[in-house]
Amino acid sequence: MLFVIIGVPIFILFLPFMIILFPIHYIQRKRFEKKYANFLIENNGTNFFCYNNRKKSKEYIEQNIIPNLNGGIEIVYLNGKKVVSKHSVEFISQALYSFKKYNRFPHLMKIRNGKLIDKSINNPFYNVLNLNKPKTELLNQINRFFEIV
Q1: pLDDT for 60-99, tens place per residue?
Q2: Is the peptide bond before 106 cis (omega within 30 degrees of 0)?
Q3: Closest CA to 105 of 48, 54, 38, 32
């Protein structure tokens, strides 16, 4: 009962603000979606290797994986919640947020035909890191995902 007595007047008070702000937010979102779609089209064929600042894996990736990646693979580094990339942080953040096959980092993503395709390589990476499996299989898996022969 108390909720109704307090909630209804507050809702009525904020209704004009919501009516004004909703269309503004909607238009801004549509503009961003259009810019993001253009980003995907403009960067068609781009490959990304994404990793984060987890201490043990960061060091190994930077010393053993990144130097062995094909030159056409771009690096995206997540330092906490801060994205480090040569591309627009706004668009890379959106790409990271929209992962469909996320299962922790490291992660691969590629842009093909205006669409983002992603794949987690967390399990194979940690097999290499913790179980001392050869890194060549991991690198081959990365190259297969990016269609690099």
Answers
A1: 999 999 999 988 899 999 998 899 999 999 999 999 998 8
A2: yes
A3: 54
Question: Which tokens belong to 46?
Answer: 């781009």
The pLDDT value given to residue 148:
75
Cβ atoms of residues 110 and 146 within 8 Å: yes
What distance lies between CA 42 and its chain's CA centroid? Answer: 17
> Mind listing the pLDDT tens digit for each residue in 2-27?
777 888 888 888 888 888 888 999 99
Instruction: Answer whether 114's CB lies under 8 Å from 44's CB.
Output: yes
Give the whole-angstrom CA distance, residue 120 versus residue 103.
6
Instruction: Give the number of other Cβ atoms within 10 Å of residue 135's Cβ.
Output: 17
Based on the number of CB atoms within 10 Å of its own CB, is 27 exposed (0-12), middle (13-18) or buried (19 or more)? exposed
pTM given for the model: 0.83
Return the exposure string of 56-78: e unless at least 16 CB atoms fall within 10 Å of the residue's CB, then b: ebbebbeeebeeebeeebbebbb
The token duo for 114 is 């205006």
Question: Could you give the CA distance from residue 121 to residue 26 in angstroms, rounded to a whole number?
Answer: 36
Give the three-state DSSP class for 149: coil
